[in-house]
Structure formats: structure tokens, C-alpha cells
Amino acid sequence: MDRSYAEAALTDAERAFQETRGQKSESHLDVSETALVQLRKACRLLEAAHTLREQNGYYTVVIEASFVAVERTIQFYLLHRNHVAGEDLRYEHTAVYQQAAAVNLCSQSFADRLTQLWKQNRAEVYYRETVASAEQADAMLSLADAVHQYVLEYASLRHKCVCPE
User: Fold this and answer.
1) Rounded CA separation 151/100 (Å)
2) Maximum distance among all alpha carbons in the chain?
3) Could you give the C-alpha distances from 165 to 34, 46, 64, 90, 120, in angstroms and in order?
4) Residues in Cβ contact with 31 at an 8 Å cutoff, skipping those fewer than 6 apart
5) Around 160, how many Cα atoms within 13 Å sit in the side-chain half-sphere?
6) How many other CB atoms are found less than 10 A from the CB of residue 150?
7) Which residue in 13, 52, 88, 147 has the most C-beta neighbors within 10 A?
8) Is the sign of the CA dihedral 115, 39, 35, 126 positive or negative?
9) Any idea of the CA torsion for 158, 159, 163, 165, to the nearest 10 degrees?
10) Cα atoms in the 13 Å half-sphere on the side-chain side of 56
11) Closest CA to 85 of 155, 38, 151, 119
12) DSSP 23-73
């Protein structure tokens, strides 16, 4: 790919992340609070997943977005309540489930089941070791919606959400 159109595209992408002055931010994500950014990312992921699901397909993307929406929603809670700092959440996807149990957002059993679901199914779908189905996409999207709603109700922060009614 070196010295080809791919290298030129790589250069453009690198520049886009380095030179951010004058760029327009995605709506609803232009907030200064780290926790709120995570919540709003979850809201946007859920809206995108619902839109793709309505297109009667894109099961793999819906599943991926749903897993990430669950993660972002829980991250929001942990950050909002000062249980973690932003840098604590960068690398291990399933660690957020264990931290949710540690602060009693959910039971250890629920966290363990989320962890197993992620390890056994997200990776297989993501790496195409299996083919995603409509039923799996619908179930994951329902789970992501339920976790999002639960966390907002538990924290009494529904007003911070930008999901469509």
C-alpha cells in the first residue's frame, strides 16, 4: 500500500485528526463533560443501530454498535459518579462490566453474563467466525436499549440522554 492512493488516504486521515481547527463536531457530542460524551455516543450508536436495523439488514454492524452502546452507557455512569477516570476505561472492553458490578450498578452475575456474551459472541461475529442473524441483531439491540434505559433511570439522569423519544 506504500506509495499508492492508500498511502495518500492515510496521510489525509492523519491530518484530519491532527488539524482539528475549523472542523464541525457531531451534534450533541460537543460537550465538555467526559461522562456526558460517553452517554451521547451511546445515544448516537443506538439511533444508528435502529436506523440500520430498519433497513432490514446490517446485522453485524447492529450487533457491534449494540455492544459498544452498552459499554459507553456503563462508562457514562462510572465516569459521572467518579468511580473511574477516563484513562481507566481505554483498553479492556469487558472490564467495564466488572466495574459496574463493583459499584453495585448490576450484580456480579449480570456482569459475568455480559462478559461471557461479549467474549463468546461479539468476537465471533466481529471476526466473521460465525454469520450474524436478524434474531441476534434484534436481541442485542434490545439489550443495549434496556441497559441504556436502566442506567439512566438508576442514575435519575434521563434528561441527559439525546435518544429520540
Assistant:
1) 10
2) 54
3) 24, 12, 23, 30, 32
4) 37, 40
5) 25
6) 14
7) 147
8) positive
9) 90
10) 0
11) 38
12) PPPPTT---S-HHHHHHHHHHHHHHHHHHHHHTT--HHHHHHHHHHHHHHH
Q: Which residue has the cell 459499584?
A: 103
Q: Which of 35, 28, 29 is nearest to 76 (CA)?
A: 35
Task: Name the residue among 154, 50, 69 with its Cα closest to residue 118.
Answer: 69
Question: CA-based Rg of the chain, rounded to a whole angstrom?
Answer: 17
pLDDT by residue, tens only, the chain of 165 residues: 888 899 999 999 999 889 888 888 777 777 778 899 999 999 999 999 999 999 888 998 999 999 999 999 999 999 999 998 877 777 778 889 999 999 999 999 999 999 999 888 877 766 766 778 899 999 999 999 999 999 999 988 888 888 887
| pTM exceeds 0.85 | yes
Q: CA 65 to CA 142: how far, in whole Å?
A: 12
